[in-house]
């Protein structure tokens, strides 16, 4: 169950506990961390069977506190915080309820240590320190949100988070409300309250209310709003948010109605009905804008086809509907649903690549050799009418790849797509021919990449295929020197360097890979540009595969139509329009992100307001 050395240390701890000698937890034979590693192992293996040993260790810890020096107290405090976080992270609710007594006894130890004034300022754990760094140094609401959402125990289970939060409330209540930072601190406070559970809100609300009600700013709007939130008296303010960010939750009714009169243009495009075309999306989506097919040629090479719904053949670029899509810029996914760039009839029916329906598509074709290496100058774009054979969700892709059987009609397509995706991973150099000739090894490779989540295999395929299309299309259009929207990254290198320096001495943060990944990614932001720039590991990149989700992708499809097929273009005007469009899209996307965050916070607070009223 656990190693011999751990058993010896456990016996030593129990011996010291029974003899009640005046010893600290840092003797040469074992460390504080050793003790908590043993405690975790005992709890994890069988709490009921190990209750006696667990109680002995807890007694030892409790009896050792008074004999510790300040350094060991601080070490013990932080290890207990990490231990509790580990319990909340890895144990299910049933196991957490079993160890309630253990958790309570550790809370007693934490309170005992925190009452020591000489070390009080050193006891904040790394997560609280990082929270304060984002709060006061960077003043970055989005990173605070990432931190709190990745570590939901921080608010409800950390003694010093409460102290930090109440200090924030006190400072806010005493601010000059003409200060430009007032709005920021208000947003932080309501964000924190929105993430709190009802029990924690009830625990905090009396102290918060007392601070705010006794301040000179108690009549200020923001102060009144916070008090109303705590009382469960918040009002629905959705219309004000829509007005502030120039966002409309509802599509204009007149455009909804006129969308039913739209129909795809009929032209002389080639019909592709004979290829097995599949779509891979989440199970509940009806906005399907890309299909994929791959075939193996007689010489062993591969031809990859990506079919993108042909928005320009449905919506004229000079139409009011196109102007509305431009204004919206992208689909906004918020707490209650989605704000689409196109009416539902367009995006969920007429332009959606639903199976067994004829649809206009822009086809992107690439050829690869027998090792899935790109064959130069094989990239081609054409207009086609297609019929999708099969709609798959991510879970179905996983199942079809992992469990090949006689009824699996699409296994060959999926295994080729899977090998293509693996081949295009960074630093990957797999032997495609080998895996095609050795099915058992191929199956092992599939299981290796498919074990993490239901998104694993299908998501990997879609990501790698669409990244390649974005790169090849951008390269193609740039070589022709045609107007196009490209994507790039803007990284705040100075802030990132300061942040990395700040966390360099915080090992518990570095071990939190999910949080570290999300925070580091937040220091880099993608943006649109009319000039090709490096992006995503490519020398240039342009979006074309998500026209039902992003207006920029639709615009690029219009440019492809204009210059490659319709001869309906004005070079100088289109370059000027593209440059202005980048500014609009970059500004609009930032506003959309702010709207989404504030709308979700507001709706969460409305839901909690109802619960708080019922608690009265």
Give a written overview of the molecule:
The protein has helices at residues 4-19, 32-46, 51-64, 70-90, 93-98, 100-114, 126-138, 141-150, 153-157, 159-173, 182-195, 198-213, 221-231, 238-245, 253-259, 320-328, 344-350, 394-402, 411-423, 432-437, 439-449, 456-479, 493-503, 507-510, 513-522, 551-566, 571-615, and strands at residues 270-272, 278-281, 290-296, 302-309, 332-334, 337-339, 358-368, 380-387, 390-393, 486-491, 524-529. Mean pLDDT is 86; it is low at 1-6 and 12-28. It has 27 helices and 11 strands. Helix 18 (394-402) packs across helix 22 (456-479). The chain starts with a helix and ends with a helix. The longest helix has 45 residues, at 571-615. By secondary structure, the protein is an alpha+beta fold. The strands form 4 sheets. The protein has a 5-stranded mixed β-sheet with strand order 1-8-7-4-3. The protein has a two-stranded parallel ribbon with strand order 2-9.
Strand and helix map with partners:
Elements: H1 4-19, H2 32-46, H3 51-64, H4 70-90, H5 93-98, H6 100-114, H7 126-138, H8 141-150, H9 153-157, H10 159-173, H11 182-195, H12 198-213, H13 221-231, H14 238-245, H15 253-259, E1 270-272, E2 278-281, E3 290-296, E4 302-309, H16 320-328, E5 332-334, E6 337-339, H17 344-350, E7 358-368, E8 380-387, E9 390-393, H18 394-402, H19 411-423, H20 432-437, H21 439-449, H22 456-479, E10 486-491, H23 493-503, H24 507-510, H25 513-522, E11 524-529, H26 551-566, H27 571-615
Parallel strand pairs: 1-8, 2-9
Antiparallel strand pairs: 3-4, 4-7, 5-6, 7-8, 10-11
